[in-house]
Amino acid sequence: MILEPYGGTVLFSSSESGIGRIASKYFLYANNAIVLVGQRADKTAVMACVDMGTGQVRWTKDDAFSKLTSCSSAGKDAILLSTLFFAYKLDASTGAELWKQSPDPKFASMAGLMGALDKGGANLSGPAAQTQGVFVTSPHAPDLCFMGLQQTKQSQKTDSQGKTTTTVTYTSFYNAFHLKDGSYAWSQPLQLQQQLGTVVPLKQGLLVGAADKNSADLLDYATGNGLWGKNGKGISVSGPLGGAVEIDGHTLLKARGSPASASPSKEVPAP
């Protein structure tokens, strides 16, 4: 439900618009819009874009958008979003598909199969932590957009005494696209064996951290190549990356410390 802030008038009601259950929502202030993903009364999935000012539904999409991993603005006129198998750029006003691309070139030829797997309201009830994502743009690389995805896998092993051990592994995947047409900007995507962490677009490149490791990588916007550390493999920091700022030709990294202590920081010269 969206209320008019001064008079309390209901501008938008999901139930009245035919959306029985909302699974996720994204506030896109640059587009003056809210993107909702949910289910209709008949359990089919639906995505709707609602105008923040009026509460009116601008457009809706079918169950091909049943599970979003990320949703962000690409200027005031476009929206970037990713599902389990595709990256999209949509017109913010009409919902028209400006381009659609597989995150990994290896699966681009399997678009039909991926599209079939992407459909269906059943995706809405899947574990939320299985796939996480982020889609960012940067004024330092205005012609590109960058996607980060995390895949979580669990495996179980039972020993001779019947004791079962569960192992959880994480893979973070990064790729870049040309904003104009969705073509790939990097020769190949980057995969790191870590949880998806903080992603910061800096002047020098795309800074990526891990949620489960004390490391930071700076990626060249144009190529995806690593710029920090030996052979571009990144550097160690004193905790999982929490943020960064650029000051006088240096990059100040902020690591997430324990709640009882101040978060430490590290200063890195520009590449």
Tags for this entry?
single chain, 271 residues, mainly beta, Thrombin, subunit H, four-stranded antiparallel β-sheet, 21 strands, 3% helix, 49% strand, globular
SSE layout:
Layout: E1 2-3, E2 10-12, E3 19-28, E4 33-40, E5 45-51, E6 57-61, E7 68-73, E8 78-83, E9 87-91, E10 97-101, H1 111-118, E11 131-137, E12 144-158, E13 164-178, E14 190-192, E15 196-201, E16 206-210, E17 215-219, E18 235-236, E19 241-247, E20 250-255, E21 265-269
Antiparallel strand pairs: 1-2, 3-4, 4-5, 5-6, 7-8, 8-9, 9-10, 11-12, 12-13, 13-14, 15-16, 16-17, 17-18, 19-20, 20-21
Structure described in brief:
This protein has one helix spanning 111-118; strands at 2-3, 10-12, 19-28, 33-40, 45-51, 57-61, 68-73, 78-83, 87-91, 97-101, 131-137, 144-158, 164-178, 190-192, 196-201, 206-210, 215-219, 235-236, 241-247, 250-255, 265-269. It is mostly beta strands and 271 residues long.
